[in-house]
User: Fold this.
Amino acid sequence: MLLGCLLLAACTSSGDSDPAQTVEQYLQAKVASDEEAMRPLLCSAMEADLTREASSFAGLGARLENMTCTRDGESNTVTCTGAIVATYGTEESEFPLESYSVVQEDGAWKWCGEAG
Amino acid sequence: MRLRLVQVIVLLTLALILSPTSAQEETPEPASARDTTAYQRVNLFTGPGITFQIIDRIPAGVPITIIARNRSGTWVHIQRENGAGEVYENGWVISGYLNLSPELNFGDVPINDTVGDADADSDMSQLHDLYLVPVIPTISDAMREVYARGQEENRNYPHVITKVGDSITADELYLEPMSQSNYRLGAYQYLEETIRFFGASTSVDSVAARVGMTTYTIFDPAWADNTLCEPRETPLDCEYRRKRPSISFILFGPNDLLRMNDQQFDTQIRLIVENTLAHGIIPVLSTFSYDPGMGLWLQSVNFNRRLVGIAADYEVPIINLWLAARALPEYGLEGDHIHMKHWGTTYLKFDTGNVAFSGASLRNLLTIRTLDEIRNTVILPAENAD
Assistant:
């Protein structure tokens, strides 16, 4: 039983996470301004930017439309299509999704900003 | 009642602000201006507050001399003299009942706080910092150095300006009408050369002014236009790289109020100012108008006070839109209490008094007057020296 639990934990640990899935989860948390959900998905180099990142769409009724993210081969880049759509009053603003950097830290993939 | 009085004071101040020549260009005689009168009969008190003893009533229209004011500017110490120049009346009146002399810059009137201010409360003590900031800034020597560095190191364009902020600033009627030639300036005709000098640059959209923008998102590459900006580039850096302006008009506040406290706002504005200065660009800050009847009023005061403090710390110009808009109906705001009220045309129109009711028109006028100051005191002297 114990062995089974350990195996299950190992299989679901972030070490096996999919970088594209990390980016999708991060973007979902960002449009929801969910700082706690963003924190474990953000790379250490960008920890200082967490508050800014979490505030980016706060109060704007933002949502993701047609998001699809794919890792570029075996690289540390994930490219997404679709857009963030934010509503301000009666006006909608669109923020096209683009390519993002990902890094592996402590065995897990982390979102690390727009790809340069 | 207090609010009403404050509005009257500001109305009088605005009359000075909107006079075609800046008060700073004049040589006021604050303590001896003789042609100030009361526009209705007004009580004369022994001190600055209604709890002081009433000693007389000053009739409307008679000349009085302003000696001093209380710190918040709601009361003034006045005297009346007879034909031989002897003082025969001496006391305090509510400043809102006075027709101030056009030569008088109210901010230059000496402050007398040796007499207890029975009118003071915590609200007013916070506001007095904002009342005393000139609407049109004086340009510091530090900005001449910034401009010179921007020309030398960044090859910024003297004729190019830009704007940074949220929907209030992204509004196509803010500055962009300067690029049209069908303006009607009325008494502000003297601003025409300045409008022509900078006008063309206002026709290009700013990627750093966008609906919903805050002092956080100005540093978020996700908010940069990816058709114009480089990967990982922030909207602010993108705008400064693309346009290489010499002057940047920056207004944040109403959106930020909902998302951060005044310490966080202070930190973010400082980052924007430092980034702008690092590009050799003169940052022109602005206070923002806010309806005291709305929630977050005290927080808006704190934000505006932060802006004033930051401007002083970095010696950068600040337009006191907050003060100027206080005298306008609904504080110059649209029905949403956020955006500046429009004036009904798409071109600059200062000849029919619309700056006295339209916040958007007033803001354009104040911005162009500030541009005029910068052009005359920084850019033209630098060009003439070359």
